[in-house]
Amino acid sequence: MAKGHRSQIKRDRNAVRDTRPRATVSFARVSVQKACYILDAIRGKSIDEALAIVTYNPRYASEVLRKLLRSAAANAENNNGMDPAGLYVEECYANRGPIMKRIQPRAQGRAYRIEKRTSHITVVLNER
Length: 128
Prior knowledge:
- There is one protein chain.
- By secondary structure, the protein is an alpha+beta fold.
- Helices cover 39% and strands 34% of the residues.
- It is built from 4 helices and 3 strands; from the N terminus they run αβαααββ.
- The chain has a 3-stranded antiparallel beta sheet with strand order 1-3-2.
- The longest helix has 20 residues, at 60-79.
């Protein structure tokens, strides 16, 4: 059991906030496995280098990540007052979202289930 009143516990938990600029996209129509190919390529790179990687990558997830990187850079500049030239991708990860289940008719009256996977993608930046 936690010690203290409920409001005190929430106050203590919210006092330790992560101030790094971040951007998230929820319910992206790309599976986690496919998003991780691009995320592994941009992790640790500068923001300009990461944008160049996702701009010229033919995968669908790269278009989603390009918008996400530009949003995170804008958050860093406008909300935290950071210089965009010194930013790099400190963390980037994808978590599993809900799965949309669809039915595909098959031979002899059978039904085949199609799972359309979604993901929640997060990009966290920091200054060098």
